[in-house]
UniProtKB/TrEMBL annotation:
Coiled-coil region(s): none
Protein name (database record): HxlR family transcriptional regulator
Domain annotation HVO-A0261-like N-terminal: ranges: 6-91
Species assigned in the record: Actinocrispum wychmicini
Taxonomic classification: Bacteria, Bacillati, Actinomycetota, Actinomycetes, Pseudonocardiales
Record-linked Pfam families: HVO_A0261_N
UniProt cross-references to InterPro entries, sorted A to Z: HVO_A0261-like_N (IPR057527), WH-like_DNA-bd_sf (IPR036388), WH_DNA-bd_sf (IPR036390)
Length: 102
C-alpha cells in the first residue's frame, strides 16, 4: 500500500528521515552506525526513528521501549518502509511533493 502524498510530505520533512530510509533500505543498522551513515545527532535521530516506527515504517529488532536514552538492538525497515523507500526513488513523486506540499 502506497503512502498518501500528505503523509509522505510529512514524513520526508522530518529530521534526516530520507537519509534514514535510504540507509535502512540497504541493511539493518545499530543506532551508532545509523548516526554515522546519516550524519545525525543522537536525540533528533532517535526522535525521527520513533516517529517512523509509529507510522509503521521502521522496527527495532530488540524488544522494549523506544523511549530509552540508549536504545539497544538494530533498526530495520518494515515492508511498508521498503515500499516508502521505493516510492521515494521515483522522480515524479518528488516533483509532485515540491509542487503541492513542500
Amino acid at each position: 500500500m502506497a503512502v498518501s502524498r500528505t503523509d509522505l510530505a510529512f514524513l520526508v520533512s522530518q529530521y534526516r528521515a530520507v537519509e534514514i530510509l535510504d540507509a535502512l533500505a540497504r541493511k539493518s543498522l545499530a543506532l551508532r552506525d545509523l548516526r554515522v551513515q546519516t550524519h545525525a545527532s543522537r536525540r533528533p535521530l532517535a526522535r525521527t526513528l520513533r516517529l517512523l516506527g509509529a507510522h509503521g515504517m521502521v522496527r527495532r529488532t530488540h524488544p522494549g521501549s523506544w523511549d530509552r536514552l540508549r536504545p539497544v538492538g538494530r533498526y530495520e525497515l518494515t515492508r511498508q518502509g521498503h515500499e516508502l523507500a521505493d516510492q521515494l526513488s521515483v522522480l515524479d513523486v518528488w516533483t509532485d511533493l515540491y509542487e503541492h506540499y513542500l
